[in-house]
Structure formats: structure tokens, C-alpha cells
Design a protein that fits this description.
Layout (H helix, E strand, L loop, with lengths): L9 E2 L12 H11 L4 E4 L29 E4 L9 H15 L10 H4 L4 H5 L4 H21 L4
Parallel strand pairs: 1-2, 2-3
Helix pairs in contact: 2-5
């Protein structure tokens, strides 16, 4: 039997459960097998298999232009809620660059504050710039929570 074409299929990218890179070529192979663009279930930050590890770096290792070939992308997060701020924030920045627009309009001008930000200007994604922006926002969030009564 063949699945109805409207049914979306999830795929965990790459040759491993947690793959550091996802190329356009590999995605083309998956599309050919599935006969449709996949929904990615990305395990880049997953630590449910080893809770002694926590991944705090930026979203990276995914080839530019992938969103045009996907039905969607889901991020399998860290088990620790607070440890997901940077992964989810940088994923949002990646999505914004993939869509060719700013994912966070409230950060207008932030790119200039980060120094030479060619990536933000030409729509490409810079993991380092995304990380710096996420860290600034995380510190602001922590400071805000520290000021709240009962915290």
C-alpha cells in the first residue's frame, strides 16, 4: 500500500540518532524514498538517552536552504527545561534566516550591536551571531526573573 500524499512523514536526519550535519544531498535521498518532503525530527539537542549531557550550543550543522525542502522541523529538546533556551532561540534565528526575514523584529538594530553582521544582512545564518543574541536574551530573562518577587 501507498500512503496518501497528504500524509506528512517524520524523519530523524542523518546516519545517526544525533547527527551533527544534515546536507541537501542527504535530504534529496530521503525525499526520493518518501516521495514527499519530510518533517524533520531533529535530535541535535536530545539528551534523553544520556541525561549526564546537556547541549547548549547554537543550532548548526544544517545546510542553508533546507526549509524549502521540508514540510516542517521539530526539535527534540534537552530534558532540562531551562537548558532549552539557547537551542530554541537559535533555532528561531535559523528559521528567520531560512525564511528570508527577521525572526525577532523586536531585535532590530541588534545585528549592528553584534559587530560585522553580514549574515544578518544577506539572510544567511551565523551560528555564532545566533548564539550571542540568544545569550544576551537569556541573561536579560534571568535578570528579569531575579527581580520578580518570590524568585
Amino acid at each position: 500500500r501507498v500512503l496518501v500524499p497528504a500524509v506528512c512523514l517524520c524523519w530523524s536526519p542523518g546516519p545517526k540518532v544525533v547527527s551533527q550535519e544534515l546536507s541537501a544531498e542527504l535530504l534529496e535521498e530521503v525525499e526520493a524514498v518518501l516521495r514527499r518532503p519530510p518533517v524533520i525530527w531533529d535530535n541535535l539537542y536530545a539528551n534523553d538517552y544520556d541525561c549526564r549531557r546537556v547541549f547548549l550550543g547554537p543550532y548548526m550543522g544544517r545546510a542553508p536552504g533546507l526549509m524549502a525542502r521540508l514540510q516542517g522541523l521539530l526539535l527534540n529538546p534537552n530534558c532540562e527545561l531551562q537548558a532549552n533556551f539557547i537551542p530554541i532561540h537559535t533555532l528561531g534565528t535559523w528559521f528567520g534566516s531560512e525564511l528570508g526575514s527577521c525572526a525577532h523584529p523586536e531585535h532590530t538594530g541588534m545585528e549592528a550591536a553584534l559587530g560585522d553582521s553580514q549574515g544578518a544582512q544577506d539572510g544567511s545564518y551565523s551560528p555564532q551571531e545566533a548564539l550571542e543574541l540568544a545569550l544576551r536574551d537569556w541573561v536579560a530573562e534571568i535578570n528579569q526573573q531575579a527581580l520578580e518577587p518570590g524568585k
